[in-house]
Amino acid sequence: MRWLAHLGLGILARFGRAGESVTTHAGGIALLVARTAKALATGQVSMRAVLSQTYAVGVQSLPLVTVTATLSGIVTSQQGGYQFTGSVPLYILGSVVTSSVILELAPVLTAIVLIGRVGARITAELGTMQVSEQIDALYALGRDPIPVLAAPRIVAGILAMPVLVGFANGVGFLAGMIAARLTVGLGTEAFLYGARMFWHNWDMFYSLMKAVVFGFTVPVIAVHMGLLTRGGAEGVGRSTTASVVFMIIAVLVMDALFPPLLLN
Asked: Could you list the residue range(s) of the whole structural domain that residue 72 is in?
Protein backbone atom coordinates (compact mmCIF):
# COMPACT_ATOMS: atom_id res chain seq x y z
CA MET A 1 0.00 0.00 0.00
CA ARG A 2 2.91 2.31 0.64
CA TRP A 3 3.98 2.23 -3.01
CA LEU A 4 0.43 3.18 -4.02
CA ALA A 5 0.60 6.16 -1.70
CA HIS A 6 3.94 7.22 -3.19
CA LEU A 7 2.53 6.76 -6.71
CA GLY A 8 -0.50 8.90 -5.86
CA LEU A 9 1.67 11.61 -4.34
CA GLY A 10 3.92 11.55 -7.40
CA ILE A 11 0.96 11.98 -9.73
CA LEU A 12 -0.43 14.83 -7.62
CA ALA A 13 2.99 16.49 -7.59
CA ARG A 14 3.19 16.30 -11.38
CA PHE A 15 -0.28 17.79 -11.75
CA GLY A 16 0.68 20.51 -9.30
CA ARG A 17 3.84 21.39 -11.21
CA ALA A 18 1.94 21.36 -14.50
CA GLY A 19 -0.74 23.63 -13.05
CA GLU A 20 1.89 25.98 -11.68
CA SER A 21 3.63 26.11 -15.07
CA VAL A 22 0.38 26.83 -16.92
CA THR A 23 -0.54 29.56 -14.45
CA THR A 24 2.91 31.13 -14.68
CA HIS A 25 2.87 31.17 -18.48
CA ALA A 26 -0.70 32.50 -18.60
CA GLY A 27 0.20 35.31 -16.23
CA GLY A 28 3.36 36.13 -18.18
CA ILE A 29 1.49 36.23 -21.49
CA ALA A 30 -1.27 38.41 -20.00
CA LEU A 31 1.35 40.84 -18.66
CA LEU A 32 3.12 40.88 -22.04
CA VAL A 33 -0.14 41.66 -23.86
CA ALA A 34 -0.98 44.43 -21.37
CA ARG A 35 2.46 46.02 -21.72
CA THR A 36 2.27 45.77 -25.51
CA ALA A 37 -1.16 47.44 -25.53
CA LYS A 38 0.18 50.21 -23.29
CA ALA A 39 3.19 50.74 -25.56
CA LEU A 40 0.90 51.00 -28.60
CA ALA A 41 -1.53 53.33 -26.84
CA THR A 42 1.24 55.68 -25.73
CA GLY A 43 2.93 55.78 -29.14
CA GLN A 44 6.18 54.15 -28.03
CA VAL A 45 6.31 51.68 -30.93
CA SER A 46 8.34 52.66 -33.99
CA MET A 47 6.39 52.43 -37.25
CA ARG A 48 9.62 51.65 -39.07
CA ALA A 49 10.17 48.62 -36.82
CA VAL A 50 6.59 47.47 -37.43
CA LEU A 51 6.99 47.75 -41.21
CA SER A 52 10.32 45.93 -41.10
CA GLN A 53 8.83 43.06 -39.11
CA THR A 54 5.72 42.99 -41.31
CA TYR A 55 7.94 42.57 -44.37
CA ALA A 56 9.82 39.73 -42.66
CA VAL A 57 6.60 38.02 -41.54
CA GLY A 58 4.49 38.63 -44.63
CA VAL A 59 6.45 39.14 -47.84
CA GLN A 60 9.24 36.71 -47.01
CA SER A 61 6.69 34.02 -46.08
CA LEU A 62 4.85 34.22 -49.43
CA PRO A 63 6.87 31.53 -51.27
CA LEU A 64 6.29 28.90 -48.59
CA VAL A 65 2.64 29.91 -48.17
CA THR A 66 2.19 29.61 -51.94
CA VAL A 67 3.59 26.09 -51.99
CA THR A 68 1.50 25.02 -48.99
CA ALA A 69 -1.74 26.49 -50.34
CA THR A 70 -1.18 25.01 -53.80
CA LEU A 71 -0.60 21.53 -52.44
CA SER A 72 -3.59 21.76 -50.09
CA GLY A 73 -5.89 22.69 -52.99
CA ILE A 74 -4.49 19.95 -55.23
CA VAL A 75 -4.70 17.20 -52.60
CA THR A 76 -8.24 18.19 -51.55
CA SER A 77 -9.39 18.19 -55.18
CA GLN A 78 -7.79 14.83 -55.96
CA GLN A 79 -9.17 13.10 -52.88
CA GLY A 80 -12.61 14.62 -53.39
CA GLY A 81 -12.63 13.59 -57.04
CA TYR A 82 -11.73 10.03 -56.04
CA GLN A 83 -14.61 9.87 -53.56
CA PHE A 84 -17.20 11.51 -55.85
CA THR A 85 -16.77 9.19 -58.81
CA GLY A 86 -19.96 7.34 -57.79
CA SER A 87 -23.50 8.67 -57.49
CA VAL A 88 -22.57 12.09 -56.04
CA PRO A 89 -22.67 14.88 -58.67
CA LEU A 90 -19.14 15.81 -59.57
CA TYR A 91 -19.79 19.56 -59.40
CA ILE A 92 -20.09 19.18 -55.59
CA LEU A 93 -16.30 18.92 -55.67
CA GLY A 94 -16.19 22.68 -56.19
CA SER A 95 -17.97 23.25 -52.91
CA VAL A 96 -15.84 20.71 -51.05
CA VAL A 97 -12.57 22.23 -52.23
CA THR A 98 -13.70 25.80 -51.58
CA SER A 99 -15.04 25.12 -48.10
CA SER A 100 -12.10 22.94 -47.08
CA VAL A 101 -9.49 25.46 -48.22
CA ILE A 102 -11.15 28.62 -46.94
CA LEU A 103 -12.63 27.36 -43.67
CA GLU A 104 -9.80 25.12 -42.52
CA LEU A 105 -6.73 24.37 -44.62
CA ALA A 106 -5.57 27.86 -45.57
CA PRO A 107 -5.76 29.40 -42.07
CA VAL A 108 -4.32 26.41 -40.20
CA LEU A 109 -1.54 25.54 -42.66
CA THR A 110 -0.55 29.19 -42.95
CA ALA A 111 -0.39 29.36 -39.16
CA ILE A 112 1.86 26.28 -39.14
CA VAL A 113 4.09 27.98 -41.71
CA LEU A 114 4.17 31.08 -39.49
CA ILE A 115 5.12 28.96 -36.49
CA GLY A 116 7.97 27.20 -38.24
CA ARG A 117 9.34 30.15 -40.16
CA VAL A 118 8.58 33.15 -37.92
CA GLY A 119 7.66 31.94 -34.43
CA ALA A 120 10.76 29.81 -33.99
CA ARG A 121 12.95 32.64 -35.31
CA ILE A 122 11.45 35.16 -32.89
CA THR A 123 12.01 32.87 -29.92
CA ALA A 124 15.58 32.10 -30.97
CA GLU A 125 16.37 35.78 -31.60
CA LEU A 126 15.00 37.05 -28.31
CA GLY A 127 16.35 34.02 -26.44
CA THR A 128 19.84 34.71 -27.76
CA MET A 129 19.51 38.36 -26.76
CA GLN A 130 18.37 37.28 -23.31
CA VAL A 131 21.22 34.85 -22.60
CA SER A 132 23.81 37.26 -24.05
CA GLU A 133 22.50 40.01 -21.70
CA GLN A 134 21.42 42.33 -24.52
CA ILE A 135 17.99 42.62 -22.90
CA ASP A 136 19.65 43.64 -19.63
CA ALA A 137 21.67 46.22 -21.55
CA LEU A 138 18.43 47.77 -22.83
CA TYR A 139 17.14 48.04 -19.27
CA ALA A 140 20.46 49.57 -18.20
CA LEU A 141 20.08 52.23 -20.91
CA GLY A 142 16.56 52.99 -19.73
CA ARG A 143 14.90 51.32 -22.72
CA ASP A 144 11.91 49.04 -22.31
CA PRO A 145 12.33 45.92 -24.54
CA ILE A 146 8.57 45.56 -25.01
CA PRO A 147 8.09 48.59 -27.31
CA VAL A 148 11.43 47.95 -29.02
CA LEU A 149 11.39 44.16 -29.51
CA ALA A 150 8.01 42.64 -28.61
CA ALA A 151 5.32 45.04 -29.86
CA PRO A 152 6.58 45.37 -33.48
CA ARG A 153 6.65 41.59 -33.88
CA ILE A 154 3.17 41.13 -32.42
CA VAL A 155 1.64 43.92 -34.53
CA ALA A 156 3.37 42.52 -37.63
CA GLY A 157 1.79 39.12 -37.04
CA ILE A 158 -1.67 40.65 -36.70
CA LEU A 159 -1.24 42.71 -39.88
CA ALA A 160 0.46 40.13 -42.08
CA MET A 161 -1.47 36.98 -41.21
CA PRO A 162 -4.88 37.98 -42.71
CA VAL A 163 -3.13 38.99 -45.95
CA LEU A 164 -1.26 35.68 -46.09
CA VAL A 165 -4.45 33.69 -45.41
CA GLY A 166 -6.41 35.66 -48.02
CA PHE A 167 -3.63 34.94 -50.53
CA ALA A 168 -3.60 31.25 -49.53
CA ASN A 169 -7.38 31.09 -49.99
CA GLY A 170 -7.09 32.31 -53.57
CA VAL A 171 -4.12 30.11 -54.44
CA GLY A 172 -5.70 27.00 -52.91
CA PHE A 173 -8.98 27.64 -54.72
CA LEU A 174 -7.28 28.08 -58.10
CA ALA A 175 -5.03 25.06 -57.57
CA GLY A 176 -8.05 22.93 -56.64
CA MET A 177 -9.97 24.08 -59.69
CA ILE A 178 -7.08 23.31 -62.05
CA ALA A 179 -6.47 19.93 -60.40
CA ALA A 180 -10.17 19.05 -60.73
CA ARG A 181 -10.03 19.75 -64.44
CA LEU A 182 -6.86 17.71 -64.96
CA THR A 183 -7.72 14.71 -62.77
CA VAL A 184 -11.48 14.17 -63.08
CA GLY A 185 -12.33 16.36 -66.06
CA LEU A 186 -14.51 18.81 -64.11
CA GLY A 187 -14.82 21.99 -66.15
CA THR A 188 -14.31 25.47 -64.75
CA GLU A 189 -18.00 26.41 -65.04
CA ALA A 190 -19.14 23.26 -63.23
CA PHE A 191 -16.52 23.78 -60.52
CA LEU A 192 -17.62 27.39 -60.00
CA TYR A 193 -21.28 26.31 -60.00
CA GLY A 194 -20.59 23.86 -57.17
CA ALA A 195 -18.53 26.44 -55.29
CA ARG A 196 -21.35 29.02 -55.47
CA MET A 197 -24.06 26.54 -54.51
CA PHE A 198 -23.01 26.25 -50.85
CA TRP A 199 -21.04 29.49 -50.51
CA HIS A 200 -21.69 31.89 -47.62
CA ASN A 201 -20.07 35.29 -47.36
CA TRP A 202 -19.53 34.52 -43.68
CA ASP A 203 -17.02 31.84 -44.68
CA MET A 204 -14.44 34.39 -45.78
CA PHE A 205 -14.95 36.46 -42.63
CA TYR A 206 -14.57 33.28 -40.59
CA SER A 207 -11.31 32.47 -42.36
CA LEU A 208 -9.90 35.96 -41.77
CA MET A 209 -11.01 35.90 -38.12
CA LYS A 210 -8.95 32.75 -37.69
CA ALA A 211 -6.05 34.54 -39.36
CA VAL A 212 -6.19 37.48 -36.96
CA VAL A 213 -6.34 35.23 -33.89
CA PHE A 214 -3.52 32.99 -35.10
CA GLY A 215 -1.48 36.01 -36.18
CA PHE A 216 -1.77 37.38 -32.65
CA THR A 217 -1.19 34.13 -30.79
CA VAL A 218 1.94 32.93 -32.57
CA PRO A 219 4.16 36.01 -32.00
CA VAL A 220 2.87 36.51 -28.45
CA ILE A 221 3.90 33.00 -27.42
CA ALA A 222 7.17 33.29 -29.35
CA VAL A 223 8.09 36.57 -27.67
CA HIS A 224 7.05 35.28 -24.24
CA MET A 225 9.17 32.15 -24.54
CA GLY A 226 12.10 34.09 -25.94
CA LEU A 227 12.16 36.51 -23.01
CA LEU A 228 12.02 33.59 -20.55
CA THR A 229 15.11 31.91 -22.01
CA ARG A 230 17.90 31.04 -19.61
CA GLY A 231 21.00 28.84 -19.78
CA GLY A 232 23.09 29.81 -22.77
CA ALA A 233 22.92 28.14 -26.18
CA GLU A 234 21.36 24.99 -24.75
CA GLY A 235 18.66 27.09 -23.13
CA VAL A 236 17.91 28.78 -26.44
CA GLY A 237 17.40 25.37 -28.03
CA ARG A 238 15.10 24.19 -25.24
CA SER A 239 13.12 27.43 -25.30
CA THR A 240 12.68 27.35 -29.07
CA THR A 241 11.50 23.74 -29.02
CA ALA A 242 9.03 24.39 -26.21
CA SER A 243 7.80 27.52 -27.97
CA VAL A 244 7.06 25.64 -31.21
CA VAL A 245 5.18 22.95 -29.27
CA PHE A 246 3.13 25.54 -27.36
CA MET A 247 2.32 27.48 -30.52
CA ILE A 248 1.13 24.39 -32.40
CA ILE A 249 -1.03 23.25 -29.48
CA ALA A 250 -2.49 26.75 -29.06
CA VAL A 251 -3.35 27.03 -32.77
CA LEU A 252 -4.99 23.58 -32.87
CA VAL A 253 -6.98 24.20 -29.68
CA MET A 254 -8.25 27.56 -30.92
CA ASP A 255 -9.04 26.05 -34.30
CA ALA A 256 -11.21 23.46 -32.53
CA LEU A 257 -13.01 26.23 -30.64
CA PHE A 258 -13.89 28.27 -33.72
CA PRO A 259 -16.68 26.07 -35.17
CA PRO A 260 -18.86 25.95 -32.02
CA LEU A 261 -18.30 29.67 -31.40
CA LEU A 262 -18.70 31.11 -34.91
CA LEU A 263 -20.29 28.49 -37.17
CA ASN A 264 -23.23 27.44 -35.01
From this structure: 46-263
Evaluate whether 243 touches 123 at the Cβ level (below 8 Å). yes
Give the model confidence (pLDDT) of 43-53 as tens digits. Answer: 899 999 999 99
Residue 200 lies in a domain: yes
- Would you list the DSSP string of 92-157? HHHHHHHHHIIIIIHHHHHHHHHIIIIIHHHHHHHHHHHHTTHHHHHHHTT--HIIIIIHHHHHHH
Residue 101 located in a structural domain: yes
The answer as to whether 180 is a domain residue is yes
Any domain includes 11: no
Structural contact between residues 251 and 217, judged by C-beta atoms closer than 8 angstroms: yes
pLDDT tens across 76-128, in order?
Answer: 998 887 777 666 788 888 899 999 999 999 999 999 999 999 999 999 999 99
Residues in the chain: 264
- pLDDT tens digits for 112-124? 999 999 999 999 9
Domain tally, the chain: 1
The whole-angstrom separation of Cα 175 and Cα 73 is: 5
Instruction: Name the strand (E) or helix (H) holding 183.
Output: helix 151-183
DSSP at 45: S
Give the model's pLDDT for residue 156.
Answer: 95
